[in-house]
Amino acid sequence: MKKTTKVIGIAVLVVLVIGFAALNLVQAQETVTEEDVAQAKISLSGLYDQINPSIVFISVAIPAGTSSGSTQGIPWDENFNFRDLIPYLEEFNQGQPEQNTPETEERMTYGSGTGFVWDTEGHIVTNNHVVENAKEVTITYYDGIVRDASIVGTDPDSDLAVLKIEDFRTDIQPVTMGDSTTVKTGDFVAAIGNPFGNNGTMTQGIVSALERSFELESGSTETGHYTIPDMIQTDAAINPGNSGGVLINLQGEVIGVVNSFASSTYSSAGIGYAIPSTLANRVVPQLIAEGYYEHPWIGISGIALTPEINEALELPHDQRGAFVQTVQKNSPAEAAGIAGGKETIEITGGQIYGDGDIVTKIEDRDVKGMDDIIAYLASHTSVGDTINLHVLRDGEEIDVPVTLSARPTTAERTQSQTEVKTEAGSAWLGTYVKDISAEDIAKLNLPEGTEGALINQVTKDSPADDAELQVNDVIQKLDDTEIHNVQELKAELAKYLPGERITLTILRDGETLEIRLTLGTTATR
Q1: Beta strands per DSSP E along 72-177
Q2: What mean pLDDT do residues 243-262 have?
Q3: How many whole angstroms separate alpha carbon 138 and alpha carbon 147?
Q4: Which CATH architecture has domain 416-521?
Q5: Is 264 a catalytic residue?
Q6: What's the distance, CA 237 to chain centroid?
Q7: Are 110 and 61 in contact (CB under 8 A)?
Q8: What is the reported pTM?
Q9: For the chain, which terminus, N or C, has the lower number of CB atoms within 10 Å?
């Protein structure tokens, strides 16, 4: 997959010439000939020809009523046969599979995404959200050859999954994985995937930013939200269906697994994200071997210090660090004696705990906020490792050794929370809620007997996020219907369609507010 230095240099030069043509033509000491331009085009097309055969189209069938992020917002007919969704099928398949009778056919929803060939043993890598809850998975190679696949391992916390094809193609070469730690902002990259079902689409751009953190929808409860760290941001066009595809450098190496895009219109907005290859290289082999991946875990939540917080704590104006807010019970942090907050202080926008530890270094790495801790754990540690946290406590600097354990699984940490959504395509609010307990009433200083659905997470770029709903808001009414618990909220929400406007009556900090919002849909991710 390697290109000569000369060809790659020409490709980069041509891109620069496109952006700065007039200036470069006046000032350049060497001109770019038509032959150079032609050679650069051959370089890009050659890169595509080498890598695209390793990219596959993934089709999934999901039992209706279960959740998956793989669907693209395409108005699938629920009576479609699953095989009809596979590109090129009419051209390459002879005959049609037998149809199930209406009495025996299970109602399904359908979706699609992208994957890529990982090794020579039939393993395909994609995003977890592409195949989540899938009952049937089928892959289509670049030339239309179709194979059934099974899921061998998933990891929601990195949004990675591995499939296995038994009768895999031996003539298809695996991709070459690169080193995402060598990537720099401004590097030229290309994405290959299947946006909106358009197989083998290549887009190109640059690395727009590094070290982005992408918040998981299945975050933790009381201890903040888990994130995918060190994400690569790119302006290469990424749309629904690109998920699970590749982000490559000009040497044809995969530096990231395309994960998502950020757009309120669900179309490319010039901001896309990819899971770094360093994380994929750690997770995927374990998914193949064990079917799961254990993420090293400390068990703290915190916030980055700011000048305002520093002033309130009488710290130097430019002090940096992760200010520990809570320590989870039975966590490594609790066992090591890391201190969370108990006493609150007022800052602009609300309250924070003002007496927790401040982590300034993890091993020899400076810490500016929680993202730095999470990124270090993901890239450099394993379960069972003992790491050193350099902590500022009561004006003194101390070192605290912490032995890492496995992060609680998604199922374990979401036992007390429910996402408010029904089946794919239904109206979507974008919140995780729980029934209000006596402990919640005491902790949040709510009136005795308060009922409703307590928000404990708001999904990024959701209708709830757009309407500025907040954690600890209590939903007490949807339009004119009173809401006493989570089930009532879900039942009432099921009566609405995506795009409808609703009014939520919420309790926030002792004040009753009415918030208008437009419901979205779970079908597009």
Answers
A1: 108-117, 123-126, 136-140, 146-155, 160-164, 176-177
A2: 88
A3: 6
A4: Roll (2.30)
A5: no
A6: 17
A7: yes
A8: 0.64
A9: N
The size of the chain, in residues, is 525
Q: Which CATH superfamily is domain 296-406 in?
A: PDZ domain (2.30.42.10)
Q: Is the separation of the CB atoms in 280 and 124 below 8 Å? A: no
Q: For the purposes of burial, counting CB atoms within 10 Å of the CB of 264, is it exposed (0-12), middle (13-18) or buried (19 or more)?
A: exposed
**Long-range contacts, 223-227 (Cβ 8 Å, 24+):** 223/299, 223/300, 223/301, 223/326, 223/327, 223/328, 224/301, 224/302, 224/325, 224/326, 224/370, 225/457, 226/157, 226/374, 226/407, 227/371, 227/374
Confidence of residue 400 (pLDDT cuts 50, 70, 90): very high
The pLDDT confidence band at residue 46, using thresholds 50, 70 and 90, is confident
At residue 88, what is the residue type? Y
| 491: its two tokens | 């039942």
What DSSP state is assigned to residue 391?
A: E
How far from chain centre, in Å, is Cα 502? 28
Distance (Å, rounded) from C-alpha 483 to C-alpha 450? 11
Neighbours of 99 (CB within 10 A): 8
The string of DSSP letters for 435-457 reads EPPHHHHHHTTPPTT--SEEEEE
* Structure tokens belonging to residue 111: 């979706």
Structure tokens at 358: 């401040």
Per annotation, catalytic residue among 155, 157, 159, 372:
159
Instruction: Please compute Rg for the chain using Cα positions.
Output: 25
The answer to whether 390 is a known catalytic residue is no
Please give the structure tokens belonging to residue 126. Answer: 């994609």
Give the residue range(s) of CATH 2.40.10.120 domains in the chain: 54-292
Any catalytic annotation for residue 67? no
> Which H or E element spans position 376?
helix 370-380
Q: What kind of architecture, by CATH, is found in domain 54-292?
A: Beta Barrel (2.40)
In whole angstroms, give the CA distance from residue 358 to residue 391.
Answer: 5
Paired tokens of 11: 């490709």
Q: Which position among 36, 59, 129, 295 bears the catalytic label?
A: 129
First to last CA, the chain: 32
Letter for the amino acid at 340? G
Quickly state the pLDDT bin for 501 (edges 50, 70, 90).
confident
Closest C-alpha to 117, from 175, 191, 159: 175
**Other residues' Cβ atoms within 10 Å of the Cβ of residue 205:** 18
Contact 73, 523 (CB under 8 A): yes
Tell me the pLDDT tens digit for each residue of 366-397.
999 998 999 899 889 999 999 999 999 988 99
- With a cut of 90, say whether residue 22 has pLDDT above it: no
Cα 305 from Cα 496, distance rounded (Å):
42
Q: 3-state DSSP call for residue 138?
A: strand
Q: Report the C-alpha gap between 264 and 141 in whole angstroms.
A: 31
CA dihedral (69, 74, 76, 81) in degrees, to 10, reads: -80
C-alpha distance from residue 476 to each of 78, 436, 508, 515, 519 (Å): 35, 11, 11, 12, 17
Which regions of the chain carry the CATH code 2.30.42.10? 296-406, 416-521
Place of tokens 């995918």: 228
Catalytic residue among 208, 213, 218, 243: 243
The C-alpha atoms of residue 193 and residue 90 are separated, in whole angstroms, by 22
